[in-house]
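Let's do one together. I've listed all components of the complex below, 856 residues spread over two lines.
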Amino acid sequence: MQRILSAQLPAHVGATVRIAGWTHRRRLLKSVAFLIVRDAAGTAQVVVTDPAVRAAVEALAEETVVEVVGTVTANPTAPAGVELTDPTVRPLGPPAVPPPFDLFRPTLSATLPTQLDHAPVALRHPRRSAALRVAAAAVAGFRATLDARGFVEVHTPKIVGSSTESGANVFALDYFGRPAYLAQSPQFYKQLLVGVLERVYEVGPVFRAEPHDTARHLAQYTSLDAELGFVTDHRDVMTVLRDTLAGLLDTVADRAGPALTLLDAAVPPVPAEIPAVHFTEALAIAGAPADEPDLAPAHERALGEWARREHGSDFLFVTGYPMAKRPFYTHPDPARPAYSNGFDLLFRGVELVTGGQRLHRHADYLAALAERGEPVEPYADYVDAFRHGMPPHGGFAIGLERLVARLVGAANVREVTAFPRDLHRLTP
Amino acid sequence: MQRILSAQLPAHVGATVRIAGWTHRRRLLKSVAFLIVRDAAGTAQVVVTDPAVRAAVEALAEETVVEVVGTVTANPTAPAGVELTDPTVRPLGPPAVPPPFDLFRPTLSATLPTQLDHAPVALRHPRRSAALRVAAAAVAGFRATLDARGFVEVHTPKIVGSSTESGANVFALDYFGRPAYLAQSPQFYKQLLVGVLERVYEVGPVFRAEPHDTARHLAQYTSLDAELGFVTDHRDVMTVLRDTLAGLLDTVADRAGPALTLLDAAVPPVPAEIPAVHFTEALAIAGAPADEPDLAPAHERALGEWARREHGSDFLFVTGYPMAKRPFYTHPDPARPAYSNGFDLLFRGVELVTGGQRLHRHADYLAALAERGEPVEPYADYVDAFRHGMPPHGGFAIGLERLVARLVGAANVREVTAFPRDLHRLTP
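Okay, and this is what the predicted structure of the assembly comes out as:
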């Protein structure tokens, strides 16, 4: 008899079926016992009246893996309107030890550090696993949207020879006796691959030796990176980003609907055209002094409220950040060179995506590095490629864990990461 | 005027269009000049007769990025039957420096080390970029097949606290002052996540500090990992692997057809049921002594010939490898405990995939480690999870670069890797 999933039970009323999963909860009443079995699709209620079966169920701790053969019986008061009656219950392994916290309650009562210490068990809670399903759907939507637009997926080195992008916050490692570093982003490689494939994306781990112990920093996170050539300027990148976000969110709604429901979450609509304000306007809207070089979190919140009020949008582009605050490869606004063709996308008043147009002329790279007093040598492989013809291009990067945390309303990115890595945490 | 790609030209005969790309080749004849422009879709021939335009083209080195506006004109002798006439040519950047080797010849004449030193340029050669497209399609097919079978994509830590799987060949790093290591595989995490999501897969980098300088070893490669719970034994895993390979190869044929053609490659058919032989039979078929503990490359080649001859199959499963040669988490064959429920999949006589059923009982892990004289402590987080109920499960891992190299007939995995990392190579 083929195993079926709990969610398939309503289609089998009257039939004898086989299910399997984890002992999620047992309720041992006087005349009847209920065994709740959890599987990948949800839970199933098993009604036990036979004394021998009851004795077997009593001996199984929560989380024991079991197989149940029984009759699917309609019962309007049971979850999903069906339950399994007249069951046989067979453990698929020895009895489990009880979990360190109750998994059957609507939310985990254990503190986040305790959950993280016991991640293999904590992730089994339906709210924790639902977030992993939302993440998987988000990544699938990211790829599908870009695939449909001629992007090619690439895989780039995570071990690099020089600590480039920011210098600080890199993990150093011993590479066959030589110093090496973990890549903080695929930025340079995705640009080089624009010279090969025109449009590329990568979904992969990036590493930041973040000394910050906050709710939104991880030492390893999953970066959704895209880069495209033959753009006019950053606005072409913003168009692709808008479509990518819309496709990503549609896929989350399509593929992770039950997970969203369980988390009381819904995907926000993405306007056909996301409102955009220049950095200088953004300062004025936020009531910040005109000479501020960057937006503070309070400014971003004010902008989020403004976008909702004025445009009915959860999303807002801020363009033209000052060059001084953007990385050296950022393309300036030709009309106002102190401002960049870089942008941030705010979601409900918090930065969600960073992107922009990049420099594409070799001489511009040399000038940009010289202006910042940085040597060319650590960037030589990267900068040299621009001598061989690169089109105007740009791109963006989305941090998967932050995106998912925002979507599902998690206060801490660790709640939506299977096995987070941070300043203090290297296990499990 | 919207830019179109070279492959779209035949649909626009008679129209004025805009294309853009790289100066792939110039042929400067007496009365006419030909400019071959390469873009993401292929190449386009531009016919230049106007002296001013010719002078501009003469000034552009190969690889300069250009935009061409011209009339699409049918010409049966031109590639794809069309060419652009009466063009204007505008560089999108300054002239490039000539590439270190000719990109317009059918194959790159530069040695592989030279190509790798100049990877951002070498990858522009159509044969090199075609391999990247095959890899992208393979990964897409892997995911699509597993998505359709209820697998959930996961992202696991690449920085781990103990050098587990094999002990040797790990990269050590400084993690906020503590020793840590780069993960050699997501093996333990994917198993733990079977306890959460039942069926999971991951596509991500794995790291091996391989002291071997061979045509098939990389220090970082892309591993396609899958793991599934509630199996009867390894044969359920083999069924999923068979379907995954078939779906992967179908997607390569669908999405990377032109790339395969360019590489003179074709995807092999996957039999509805891949022939399988037990390790003991395999030794006999290969003419090896019955007490050999493993298959040597020559044995694998003999088995590949046998599978082709006897079953008309490029693929052959070898099951039941001796336990002594498999990792400690391998499930033994209950009927013959010296042999495992592990398998290899050979493709044309070379190992392509390794997989098998894993242990799922806590006591079995303790016994397996004790038998090998290994301490439990480094594996504590992993082993402890099996106290909380894990179903019978198994999985497999496919090395992307080796798979693609085999598919396209590349002698060295570095030919199909954008920026390989090995014993000697840390850049670009």
